[in-house]
Design a protein that fits this description.
There is one protein chain. The chain has 60 residues and is mainly beta. The chain has one domain. The chain is built from no helices and 4 strands. The chain starts with 6 loop residues before the first strand and ends in a 7-residue tail after the last strand.
Length: 60
Amino acid sequence: GDRRIDAVAVSTKMGFLFVFDRETGEPVWPIEERPVPPSDVPGERASETQPFPTKPPPFE
């Protein structure tokens, strides 16, 4: 069944919304690490993966 929790949500400039349980810090929905293209900025060392929330869908 459904249960209510205190949560905190963080939105990104790409329209993603990450939602976490305020008590535990755990994500409410799974977060996937996906490969991303390398940076083309000289001297920048970017991560090979980025986190993507599985829910809710990105804002448009």
